[in-house]
Write a structure and sequence with these properties.
Shape: globular
Distance between the termini: 16 Å
Mean pLDDT: 94
Structural class: mainly beta
């Protein structure tokens, strides 16, 4: 099943339309949201559309300290299955990082990345992607297992964004949550002349 968000820019500004996600469990403050989908658009009824499917990947980037504005550039994507292949190891050997030994994790529905003792501090980050685009990341550390819980909340924002950019979601003021009603897979996010959002099911 494919999902989509259509963006309509009825404001008077040019900028980047951004879709990002927040995890269902916000207690792990180490896991950071990324600018998941972005695209530049102009004002006055300018329209664009993002479409994706609910499939997950493990991902990593050779970027260390994750602070707002830093771009997580995914360097490897491994398909993940939430039941049979939801655990992977992250290691470094022969001068390069990689995933290996993908297997069934402790609990179906979660995604696990175990970082072994070869991983240095502040040199790489690991995360998960949806639809082939990185959505969450955390700084890699040796001998730790990060647990990512899928089923995120979707948000839209408008401003200056780059795909993969680390976000401080608490400081984003003009954001709006996009909730998909049961059996609805296409939504429209309209930015009005007053820079306020209107979120509605898309018209077929």
């Amino acid at each position: 099943m494919q999902y989509s968000i259509q963006f309509v820019n009825n404001s008077t500004n040019s900028g980047d339309f951004c879709v990002f996600q927040t995890p269902p469990d916000m207690s792990n403050s180490n896991i950071l949201s990324l600018a998941w989908l972005t695209k530049r658009c102009h004002p006055k009824n300018y329209r664009l559309k993002f479409t994706w499917s609910i499939d997950y990947n493990f991902t990593w980037s050779e970027v260390g300290e994750l602070i707002p504005g830093v771009v997580f550039d995914a360097q490897q994507l491994w398909p993940a299955d939430l039941v049979t292949a939801n655990h992977v190891d992250f290691t470094r050997y022969d001068g390069a990082y990689t995933f290996l030994d993908q297997r069934k994790g402790a609990q179906a529905g979660n995604l696990y990345i175990h970082q072994d003792d070869t991983i240095p501090l502040r040199e790489a980050s690991v995360g998960i992607a949806m639809g082939g685009k990185a959505s969450f990341a955390v700084e890699a550390q040796p001998n730790l297992t990060e647990v990512f819980i899928p089923h995120p909340t979707y948000w839209v924002a408008f401003g200056d964004y780059v795909e993969g950019q680390v976000l401080d979601v608490e400081t984003i003021t003009n954001k709006a949550v996009v909730e998909f009603p049961p059996n609805v897979y296409n939504m429209t996010a309209t930015l009005g002349a007053d820079n306020a959002w209107t979120i509605t099911p898309a018209k077929c």
